[in-house]
Amino acid sequence: MKNTISTIQEQKKKGEKISMLTAYDYSTAKLMDEAGVNTLLVGDSLGMTMLGYEDTLSVTMEDMIHHTAAVSRGAKNAFVIADMPFMSYQTSVYDAVVNAGRLMKEGRANAVKLEGGVTVCPQIKAISECSIPVVAHLGMTPQSVNVFGGFKVQGKDEAAALKLIQDAIEIEKAGACMVVLECVPKKLAGYISSVLSIPTIGIGAGAGCDGQVLVYQDMLAMFSDFTPKFVKKFADVGDVMKEAFTEFINEIQSGQFPADEHSFKVNDETDYEKLAQKLKS
Ligand code: KIV
């Protein structure tokens, strides 16, 4: 069944948890879709996981459109959300609408995601008024890493918690259809989830959220640059890949690969030495 914003919001009402994974390419998106993951997030985390940057700031609209289009082609049933990259919406409401439109038209996303609370409410309102579902992102918003001074838990003291609650209420009022809560204390995230009617998707925000998201390379142990505390490794795919790559090298060197079954045969009667003589005559 195709996941839509209505089916996802219905899941919250029924108390059914929502699953979300990041995806950046066609074949991985297809596997996640076949497994039944509700929503695929083309996160700007692709800057780190796919492109090797140290943060998300260098990711461009072109990067996001390219990867979103690939994921959308692989997602038959999953709801595809595309991240709006740094400076594609902060600059003005106009830029926000134009760039959200590009992610929908060129990337074929089902929704866009942007980071921030009260300050980006005009953007959330304007984009949703163009019939584009908007997912908000609060807490540790990676595009603000330079203001936070690192990837740190947010909402720890009362003033910060109150600000987060206010942001959550305001983004819902502005028209957000869902919100990601990243690195927020469990009790606070649970409280926000109980006061909002839109679904909350947690990452390092505890089990009280309406759904959970992880970066897929983290949950498959494929990315070793750094692993946040909230990551659970569901499989050691990184090790399996490395073993297969080593085996590939070994089999090429030993002559075990390619075997006859991996080779093409046309006419074994032909003497190519003799045939090549024709080039000289
Ligand atoms: O970019 C991303 O992958 C994200 C998730 C970490 C929520 O925003």
Strand content: 5-15%
What is the count of DSSP helices, taking H or I runs of 4+ residues?
Answer: 12
Order of helices and strands: HEHEHHEHEHEHHEHEEHHH
The N- and C-terminal alpha carbons lie at a distance of 67 Å
Q: Write down the overall mean pLDDT.
A: 96
Q: Structural class, from helix and strand content?
A: alpha/beta
What does the radius of gyration come to? 23 Å
Residue ranges: pLDDT <50 for 5 or more in a row? none
Strand tally is 8
* Spatial strand arrangement across the major sheet: 1-2-3-4-5-6-7-8
Based on CA inertia axes, which overall geometry fits?
elongated
Largest sheet: number of strands, sense, barrel closure: 8 strands, parallel, barrel
Percentage of helical residues?
40-55%
Small molecules in complex: 3-methyl-2-oxobutanoic acid
Question: Would you kindly provide a written description of the structure presented here, covering whatever features stand out?
Answer:
This protein is an alpha/beta fold. It has helices at 5-14, 26-35, 46-49, 61-74, 93-105, 121-129, 145-148, 158-174, 186-195, 216-219, 237-254, 272-280, and strands at 18-22, 39-42, 79-83, 111-115, 134-139, 178-182, 200-203, 211-214. Strands 1-2-3-4-5-6-7-8 form an 8-stranded parallel β-barrel, surrounded by 7 helices. The longest helix has 18 residues, at 237-254. The protein is elongated, with a radius of gyration of 23 Å. The termini are far apart. The model has no long low-confidence stretch (mean pLDDT 96). Bound molecules: 3-methyl-2-oxobutanoic acid (KIV). Residues 22, 41, 43-45, 83, 137, 180, 182, 203, 213, 215 line the site of 3-methyl-2-oxobutanoic acid (KIV). The site of 3-methyl-2-oxobutanoic acid has 12 residues, from strand 6.
